[in-house]
Amino acid sequence: MTSTRSIKFLLVDDLDANLVALAGLLERPGLELLMARSGREALEILLEHEVALAFLDVQMPEMSGFELAELMRGTERTRDVPIIFLTAGTVDQKRRIRGYETGAVDFLPKPIDPEILLNKATTFFELAKRREELRESEARLRAANEELERKNAELAESGVQKDRFLAVLAHELRNPIAPVLTGLEMMVTADNCPKEIVDLAEMMRRQIGQMVHLINDLLDVSRINTGKIALRMERVDINEVVTEAMESARTFIDSRGHELSFVSENDSLAVEGDRHRLFQVVSNMLSNAAKYSPPNGKIDVKSGIDGDGNAYVTVRDNGEGISEENLPKIFEMFEQVDSSRQEGLGIGLTLVMNLMELHGGGVGATSEGLGKGSEFRIWLPALVQRKEEKPVILNRPENRQFAPAKVMVVDDGKSTADIIVMFLNLEGMETRVAYNGEEAVRVAREFKPEMIFMDLGMPKMDGYQAAEEIRKLDPDVIMIAVSGWGREEDKRRSKEAGFDGHAVKPVEPEDLRQFLSLIC
Ligand code: ADP
After folding, report:
1. Which domain holds residue 183?
2. What is the pTM of this model?
3. Tens-place pLDDT, residues 264-274
4. CB 349 less than 6 A from any atom of ligand 1
5. Which of 6, 332, 362, 440 to pair with 177, CA 20 to 30 A apart?
């Protein structure tokens, strides 16, 4: 790569003849020679041009070469310009030192030896050329980088626009569907409607159902991409989700003659997740397995806990399989291995991946190759197993006897609270219930319970806050924390907050009895 800009040398001498002779020796393509007859002229040139090397005559009237060099050293712009002094006759040691102090790189005695001069000039010329080339390629690189950043920003913007467009499109497509569905429903249920029409309407209803499904997927993906999806987290048994998804996909799976099985290594498999979204994920895997397997295939579903403490679900089929090269692509938006083969938009797996990532988990696929079936696996952190979640008594009060005891239950989940109350009533307790933190404090003030089962996660005033308020009313009341979590750190937190026990949901009769033994 050659530089496009010429290299500049400055020649300073008060005698024209010397300048001309010097220039004659130095001339070469790509080199511009700037000439000055005095120090002042030289400074003016230096202000305007970037100079790669300066030849300074030492003896000049007004300003000597040394004085000019000193001024150059004191100015930011010219500080690093290499200088070669041209001296008449020999230079004594003292003057030489002064010259080097002002930054000279060399001395050339007059009359100038052309060979030495050319040697030195060539070295500086080549050096300056390299530097210039480097600078130019740096500038080119910077420009390319800026262009890349601009393109990136454009791409990001078009991505946002695409997501907005998809969201609007999906909305607009969904709106007219509701009345069509209602109309079809009316046709199907109308008295005296000929059977052919009913069949037709049912077929249309199925087709529209498919369409609604696709539109909803589209809407979901665009919501996820724009960060507008929020999971409703709760304690979910993933095995229940799998069973529900299998029931819901059953008609489609049966229609293709597939055999479906489900085994789990665990009776129940608790995770913290959004039940509806997890159902969507498993349904998607099941319908793909059915879709991408020739009729009368075999679909095996399995669940369990892996070595990393994640709950997993695998869906294995013996269908068409996926080639090695296509495996990494199938999770990309709108990616279909062969779009002519099946209906669908190629967004199902993108949605599965996004939803699993939102759950702090993931999805993976394996296949031994075309025609050899595939296995899809999802995973997400498992909650500690029930077996290890035995309720624990954290503080044991001494010599307390109450009979019959007054027990209060606090939980914002009405059905959870009511079941615990029902059981306590059966055990002969006198009970009260509160469905939020504020109510709990109010009821506790009047009812003066001896024991309280307190849900921790409640909106506004949570279990910790409510417990703190109640403790102020009655420092001796026994309080049991009821939580979806049973890890050591959760129990420690309950203990630190002054709870006397920690129970993990769902609280079973046996757990309650154990706590009641504290007061009865
Ligand atoms: P769609 O099913 O709408 O095409 P998906 O995102 O669900 O979109 O799947 C993307 C692609 O992955 C499919 O087009 C198909 O080629 C491949 N694929 C998904 N599941 C399976 C499976 N169980 N067996 C073989 N190929 C599959």
Report:
1. 163-230+396-520
2. 0.48
3. 988 778 999 99
4. yes
5. 332
